[in-house]
């Protein structure tokens, strides 16, 4: 493979992205769609659901609106398609009058549905053509019956104006032509299914206008070319289901426009590159079902636009990075069927957009963070078949959007919190095969829309006794008594203070006898009536203010 420096020489002619984002047209079940661009018409692409489509026609025109040279050279190329696909039945020179052809100021659109019993091949293009005068800018081939067969012609790389290519079907074969790297105007390339094989050509970095690349469910193999980092317009790459191997190129971190990357069900190995944390535009990443290993890079917490990350069914391990709390746009995070371990970071409560979190069959342990109650958009949490312990946080009753929580097959204990019935949208709680005690709270059964899956003993008539919660140990009782008797015994550093504010060692709540609370929450000795002290009413106001400040910081 050529070096990255060589790619820089070949693909350094980076073009400023042309205007795009026109409306997406639904993919038609067509056999051939060829679009011949008028002299001053350009395609305006749009990224939507992984597909681009040509714009709708403008004012209708005729073949005569092209120059004579454009008509002659374009017709030579169309004749090659007609010869390779006899069922087209194209005759004559006035291609704008052919059945299914619409010519407009945006170009001439040819959309035909072939009989399911007919077939054809992909044509090689003639040599005796001035391709600077060929105005074809879109080729769509889709067959629902007999396949269009043949290898991908390298000669298509001569089509200077070509902006859209879609090939769907099982009959296509051969390797990806390196010569297509000269298609500097190409915005979308989709090859779906079929027997297309070979490797990803590094020369394709010359497609400087390419926005969408889809090669899913093909036989394409080999590594991801580092040279593709110079593709400055690329926004969506879908290589799912291909036979790719090798590692994730760190160089791809420099792609300035990449929004969506799917390598699902490929044979990619290696680790997640820390450098990818600088991919500021990446929104969707799917590397599930691959052989990736290593740990989750803390640097990926910088992906501020990331909305969906699928890392399940991989060999990833290690802890959940606290730094990922900065993923403020992440809506779906799937980490199931991995070797990830450690505890659930309380700081992930900052993932304010998180709606779905999947941690099924992992090694994650520890307790459920009470702080996650602030995740206002969380709808579904599935951490089943992991190693979680501790109790169900009553604080989670404040989650306003959660509809489903699945915690089955863990080591959770304690009683089922009655307050969880206050979850406004809860529909299902799956909690069986844990170490809970007591009965299903009556408040849960009172919610008609709630389905609760628990072990039978929590619903039995004698659940209050047969599944009774154990009495607290002397150590636990001592801890509770110490806590309820006031926090002054634990780290209160204010002189002459009998009790500090909860959680504070420097703000007093109650002073010793003969001392009064000052407006700085310290204690001053009473030296006379009202001298240098705060009155009882004033002390209450100051204390309330300090409590408010404290509550604002927890």
TrEMBL record:
The chain crosses the membrane at residues 529-552. SUPFAM superfamilies: L domain-like. It is found in: Membrane. InterPro entries: Leu-rich_rpt, LRR_dom_sf, Plant_RL_S/T_kinase. It is a single-pass membrane protein. GO terms for cellular component: membrane. The keyword Amino-acid biosynthesis does not apply. Keywords: Leucine-rich repeat, Membrane, Repeat, Signal, Transmembrane, Transmembrane helix. The keyword Repeat applies. Pfam families: LRR_1 (PF00560). This is Surface antigen protein 2. It comes from Novymonas esmeraldas.
């Amino acid at each position: 493979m050529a070096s990255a420096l060589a790619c820089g020489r070949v693909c350094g002619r980076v073009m400023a992205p042309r205007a795009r984002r026109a409306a997406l047209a639904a993919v038609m079940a067509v056999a051939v769609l060829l679009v011949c661009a008028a002299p001053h018409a350009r395609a305006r692409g749009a990224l939507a659901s992984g597909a681009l489509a040509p714009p709708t026609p403008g004012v209708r025109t005729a073949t005569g609106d092209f120059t004579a040279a454009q008509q002659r050279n374009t017709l030579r190329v169309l004749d090659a398609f007609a010869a390779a696909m006899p069922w087209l039945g194209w005759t004559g020179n006035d291609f704008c009058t052919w059945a299914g052809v619409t010519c407009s100021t945006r170009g001439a659109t040819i959309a035909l549905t072939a009989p399911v019993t007919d077939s054809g091949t992909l044509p090689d293009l003639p040599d005796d053509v001035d391709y600077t005068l060929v105005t074809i800018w879109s080729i769509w081939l889709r067959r629902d019956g007999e396949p269009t067969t043949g290898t991908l012609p390298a000669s298509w790389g001569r089509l200077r104006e070509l902006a859209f290519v879609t090939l769907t079907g099982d009959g296509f074969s051969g390797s990806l032509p390196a010569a297509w790297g000269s298609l500097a105007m190409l915005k979308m390339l989709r090859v779906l299914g079929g027997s297309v094989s070979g490797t990803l050509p590094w020369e394709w970095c010359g497609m400087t206008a390419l926005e969408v690349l889809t090669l899913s469910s093909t036989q394409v193999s080999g590594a991801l070319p580092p040279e593709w980092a110079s593709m400055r317009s690329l926004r969506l790459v879908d290589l799912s289901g291909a036979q790719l191997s090798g590692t994730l190129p760190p160089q791809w971190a420099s792609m300035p426009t990449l929004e969506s990357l799917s390598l699902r069900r490929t044979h990619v190995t290696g680790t997640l590159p820390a450098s990818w944390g600088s991919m500021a535009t990446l929104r969707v990443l799917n590397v599930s079902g691959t052989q990736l290993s290593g740990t989750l890079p803390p640097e990926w917490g910088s992906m501020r636009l990331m909305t969906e990350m699928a890392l399940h069914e991989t060999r990833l391990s290690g802890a959940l990075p606290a730094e990922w709390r900065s993923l403020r746009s992440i809506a779906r995070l799937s980490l199931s069927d991995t070797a990830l371990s450690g505890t659930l970071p309380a700081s992930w409560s900052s993932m304010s957009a998180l709606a779905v979190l999947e941690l099924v069959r992992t090694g994650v342990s520890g307790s459920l963070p009470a702080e996650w109650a602030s995740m206002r958009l969380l709808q579904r949490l599935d951490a089943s078949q992991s190693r979680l312990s501790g109790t169900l946080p009553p604080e989670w009753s404040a989650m306003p959007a959660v509809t489903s929580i699945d915690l089955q097959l863990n080591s959770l204990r304690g009683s089922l919190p009655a307050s969880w019935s206050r979850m406004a949208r809860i529909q299902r709680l799956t909690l069986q095969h844990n170490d809970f005690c007591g009965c299903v709270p009556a408040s849960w059964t009172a919610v008609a829309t709630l389905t609760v899956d628990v072990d039978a003993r929590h619903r039995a008539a004698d659940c209050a006794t047969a599944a009774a919660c154990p009495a607290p140990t002397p150590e636990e009782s001592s801890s509770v008594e110490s806590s309820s008797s006031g926090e002054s015994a634990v780290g209160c550093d204010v002189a002459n203070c009998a009790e500090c504010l909860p959680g504070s060692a420097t703000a007093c709540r109650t002073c010793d006898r003969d001392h009064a609370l000052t407006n700085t929450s310290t204690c001053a000795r009473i030296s006379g009536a009202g001298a240098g002290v705060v009155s009882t009413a004033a002390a209450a106001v100051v204390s309330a203010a300090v409590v408010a400040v404290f509550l604002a910081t927890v």
